[in-house]
Write a structure and sequence with these properties.
By secondary structure, this protein is an alpha/beta fold. It contains ten helices and eight strands. It has an eight-stranded parallel barrel with strand order 1-2-3-4-5-6-7-8, surrounded by five helices. Helix 1 links the parallel strand 1 and strand 2. Helix 1 packs parallel to helix 2. The termini are close together. It binds 2-phosphoglycolic acid.
Length: about 260
């Protein structure tokens, strides 16, 4: 398995700024295929970025999508619209979507099925609030989020599904989960996936997100069952993003 590094730009960068970013990483980004690197710019930059990613090792992801194919959904974007900009991955269930925009587990389930059906790969985000952790409910929350997002398990396999474990209290706070906390959560998620999918679930990649930066990337990627990162803040800066990619490529060692 190759490690996965996804940069979630959130609501940052105009088209010009996105192009500048791409130009500055062009010569720095390792020109090998040791890792799967995915850029998730805002919708407005997708097309411009996709043109620059042609003939590169980088892939394009979107930060959200609607599951309906078309219609009266003001402000939404469909899967076909994403495909027309050459998107291959879609972040779903990000805690900011759940918390700030009221996305429920059942809404996320519809999106997961639609995205997989269309041949794209969801990056399904799951994670607990600090109160869940303090009251020992982390596993309960993770199990519920994963099980409720997967309605048709036959269409999901290790090639078309990525889970991102993102403890909400660690997102954008500078507070990273300890390697022990990350290992515990990832091992538990693996178990949940095994229960749903049998052995096939064992190889679904599980990446970590939540204040990943250059200084903690090495210890986190060496942790058990961590197959890469979903990076917010540190993915906005081309130097730190490229450095993290290098750290991951050098230190990830699962077959
Ligand atoms: P962060 O964001 O790296 O800025 O904590 C991660 C995410 O929200 O995916």
């Amino acid at each position: 398995m190759k490690p996965i590094i996804a940069g979630n730009w959130k609501m940052n960068k105009t088209i010009d700024e996105s192009i500048l970013f791409l130009e500055s990483i062009k010569n720095v980004i390792p020109d090998d295929d040791k890792s799967t690197t995915i850029l998730c710019p805002p919708f407005t930059s997708l097309f411009a970025v996709s043109k620059l990613l042609k003939n590169s090792n980088l892939s394009l992801g979107a930060q959200n999508v609607h599951y309906k194919t078309k219609g009266a959904f003001t402000g939404e974007v469909s899967i076909d619209m994403l495909i027309s900009t050459f998107v291959e991955y879609v972040i779903l269930g990000h805690s900011e979507r759940r918390k700030l925009f009221g996305e429920s587990n059942s809404f996320i389930k519809e999106k997961v099925s639609a995205v997989v059906n269309a041949g794209l790969t969801p990056i399904l985000c799951v994670g607990e609030e600090i109160d869940d952790r303090l009251s020992d409910k982390t596993q309960l929350v993770l199990k519920r989020q994963i099980e409720s997002a997967i309605s048709r398990k036959k269409i999901i396999n290790k090639e078309n599904f990525i889970i991102a474990y993102e403890p909400i209290w660690a997102i954008g706070t500078g507070e990273t989960a300890t390697t022990d906390q990350v290992e515990d959560a990832h091992t538990f998620i693996k178990l949940v996936l095994k229960n749903i999918f049998g052995n096939n679930g064992q190889n679904i990649p599980i990446i970590y997100g939540g204040s990943v930066h250059v200084d903690n990337a090495k210890s986190l990627i060496l942790a058990n069952d961590v197959d890469g990162f979903l990076i917010g803040g540190a993915s906005l800066d081309s130097e730190s993003f490229c450095e993290i990619i290098e750290i991951v490529s050098e230190n990830y060692s699962r077959g």
